[in-house]
Amino acid sequence: MTQASTTPLANSFRAQPDENGHFGQFGGRYVAETLMPLILDLDRHYRAAMADQAFHDEFDWLMKHYVGRPSPLYYAQRLTETLRESAPEGRGAQVWFKRDELNHTGAHKINNCIGQILLAKRMGKTRIIAETGAGQHGVATATVAARFGLPCVIYMGARDIERQQPNVFRMKLLGAEVVPVQSGAKTLKDAMNEALRDWVANVHDTFYIIGTAAGPHPYPELVREFQSVIGREAREQIQELAGRLPDLLVAAIGGGSNAIGLFHPFLDDADVAMLGIEAAGHGIETGEHAASLAGGTPGILHGNKTFLLQDADGQIAEAHSISAGLDYPGIGPEHSWLKDIGRVQYESVTDTEALDAFQLLCRTEGIIPALEPAHAIAAVARKARAMNRDQIILANLCGRGDKDIFTVADALGVAM
Amino acid sequence: MTDRLATRFSKCRAEGRAALVTFVTAGDPTPGDSAAILDALVAGGADIVELGMPFTDPMADGPAIQLANLRSLAAGTKTSDILAIAVAFRQRHPDVPLIMMGYANPMIRRGADWFATEAVKAGVDGVICVDIPPEEDQELGPALRAAGLHLVRLATPTTDAARLPAVLHGASGFLYYVSVAGITGKQQAQQASIENAVGKLKAATDIPVAVGFGVRTPEQAAAIGRVADGVVVGSAIVDLVGSHGHQAAPFVQDYVASLRAALNTAETVA
């Protein structure tokens, strides 16, 4: 590829992907031929929607009046002070939270679902499908399907259905059909396979609402776009409240949609460091984890090239995390690229560390976080003690923990 | 290298019939069973053999082939076993075209060049990769072509006229028409829609057109064989392997023979 030397391209980290959906070597459109025309059609409609002020107006209206945005940016004073008690003299950064757990349905997932159902409506699709692991994306999808009066089928691994009965019931209350997936290991990746099988057999009337910033192009880009409301708000709010940009952003990563939503509007702010936290499960060294970047290698799954947990023959491994929302053997392709170029740092947090952080936040701030952001909070504690007191950490509190109290009780040996 | 695929399609055309293309999953139910099952395909009258590479996440496949993938992987089938199955097949059947079919990740895991080289060494003639569309050709296509392997592309009911040239560009060996927008082994397409589609495809390309997805009965095979250059049958054979396990070979042979007999008696339009 060549470019005229007189017109240098802007040196931006926010210009990805290219028109074929590649983030460096990652991303792309690795789907069966049957789906390829649909993906191209979705791409056309997405670009037309982005150029249409009426689409943005409807999205913004729903964000404000239905989801409850903007979510607050909150200075966690008690957590900050508690961390300072065990920090070296003069250390202990200020901790701020983007409160996306206060959204309708209790997590960031709804941002993306609103955007995608508006696209579905625009494309004249009359049936919605989605995959879900823990059930949060399933609940958010069932919610928007009810709001827009469209029939909705949610694919969920049979094993996850057993573990997440309250969310299964929520989806049914919202009018969705929940289909147990019996294939493979009966968890999230198998649910995604089954949703793709449904889509390929119902191409004419069905819109597939993918729950994270992964899958074939343009999904990683459009999910990022809809979730970037998090980072856009946070960037404005922190400047208003603290008078400057943060020093470090922190977010948990399964597929990586809440993280990319927070990070993306800050990518060109050179002084803002970013940290993505993968789930280390029982520990990376045990092999029982969900840290695709730390413990995986590049490969192709579910329509995109990205870091995957896989064996020497390219067979996909099972992921493990106490947090069902992080329990996936891949990661959104933009994170693979951001790791490769070094713009974002990635670390991991174990089940045990996440449980400790979960309880720490409950007791210091009166907030019960979901197990997903509990991973981010564990990393915040780790980093804050090493940073100066005038520095700012902004972490995404991407979900509330009501759904996790049974899992946490079980892990703490409490009978309920 | 002689072009076994072109030779076989010419032979079938000379005999006034469509080629019978049969699919089984490598290592199903165990790697040790594959030789007998592949021999049964040939003995039953298969012209071309597709050897499926098992994958943990076969998202374009229906229940029959999903289960075959799981059986094979549970039996411990490795990529090295699949290549060994191909090597042995080529020694026993020097003239029968052999196609490897599967998903991208196992094919590119050690690099596309490695895979292409090993496939050639194993006597493979071509490759079908389900999840590499023309847009991502660079991932595998150049390596296969450089090694002299055919890249068999798929066309589907959703492949419209505007898109067809992109699919045909870089396609070789034959064009696989997936007659149903869906997964393998489920529903079957209306004969009229198949005839319509095959007519359009044959007007757009000189390479042979084979039709698959949902073909189960000799009657269906014969009807498709009247208009297409090849008929692909997979799930129905894989079901026999699933129900008869280690004893599947004679059942597979009888079934394939019934398909072949139907093709022999079907008069081709061309």
TrEMBL record, chain A:
Task: Share what the entry says about its subunit structure, partners included.
Answer: Tetramer of two alpha and two beta chains.
**Record's HAMAP family?**
Trp_synth_beta (MF_00133)
Provide the reaction this enzyme catalyses.
(1S,2R)-1-C-(indol-3-yl)glycerol 3-phosphate + L-serine = D-glyceraldehyde 3-phosphate + L-tryptophan + H2O
Q: Which GO terms describe its molecular function?
A: tryptophan synthase activity
- EC numbers listed for it are 4.2.1.20
Instruction: Give the record's keywords alphabetically.
Output: Amino-acid biosynthesis, Aromatic amino acid biosynthesis, Lyase, Pyridoxal phosphate, Tryptophan biosynthesis
Q: Which InterPro entries does this chain map to?
A: Trp_synth_b_CS (IPR006653), Trp_synth_beta (IPR006654), Trp_synth_beta/beta-like (IPR023026), TrpB-like_PALP (IPR001926), TrpB-like_PALP_sf (IPR036052)
PROSITE patterns reported for this sequence: TRP_SYNTHASE_BETA
Similarity comment: Belongs to the TrpB family.
- Comp. bias regions, Polar residues: 1-14
Give a GO cellular-component term.
cytoplasm
List the residue ranges of the region (Disordered). 1-20
Tell me if Lyase is a UniProt keyword of this record: yes
So which cofactors does this thing need?
A: pyridoxal 5'-phosphate
Q: What does this protein do?
A: The beta subunit is responsible for the synthesis of L-tryptophan from indole and L-serine.
Query: What is the name of this protein?
Result: Tryptophan synthase beta chain
The pathway that the record names for this protein is:
Amino-acid biosynthesis; L-tryptophan biosynthesis; L-tryptophan from chorismate: step 5/5
- Residue numbers of N6-(pyridoxal phosphate)lysine PTMs: K109
Q: Where is the Tryptophan synthase beta chain-like PALP domain?
A: 69-399
EC category: lyase
Gene3D superfamilies, per database record: 3.40.50.1100
Q: Which Pfam families does the record associate with it?
A: PALP
* CDD domains associated with the record: Trp-synth_B
UniProtKB/TrEMBL annotation, chain B:
**Catalytic residues (UniProt):** E50 (proton acceptor), D61 (proton acceptor)
Recorded catalytic activity of this chain's protein: (1S,2R)-1-C-(indol-3-yl)glycerol 3-phosphate + L-serine = D-glyceraldehyde 3-phosphate + L-tryptophan + H2O
Q: Any keyword Membrane?
A: no
Instruction: Read off the InterPro entries from this record.
Output: Aldolase_TIM, RibuloseP-bd_barrel, Trp_synthase_alpha_AS, Trp_synthase_suA
Q: Which GO terms describe its cellular component?
A: cytosol
Name of the top EC class for this enzyme: lyase
Q: What is its EC number?
A: 4.2.1.20
Record CDD domains: Tryptophan_synthase_alpha
Recorded metabolic or biological pathway in which this protein acts: Amino-acid biosynthesis; L-tryptophan biosynthesis; L-tryptophan from chorismate: step 5/5
Keyword entries, A-Z:
Amino-acid biosynthesis, Aromatic amino acid biosynthesis, Lyase, Tryptophan biosynthesis
What domain of life does the UniProt record list for this protein's source? Answer: Bacteria
Any GO MF annotation of the entry: tryptophan synthase activity
Task: Give the multimer and partner information.
Answer: Tetramer of two alpha and two beta chains.
Assigned protein family: Belongs to the TrpA family.
The record's listing under HAMAP family reads: Trp_synth_alpha
Query: What functional role does this protein have?
Result: The alpha subunit is responsible for the aldol cleavage of indoleglycerol phosphate to indole and glyceraldehyde 3-phosphate.
Protein name per UniProt: Tryptophan synthase alpha chain
Recorded source organism is Sphingobium algorifonticola
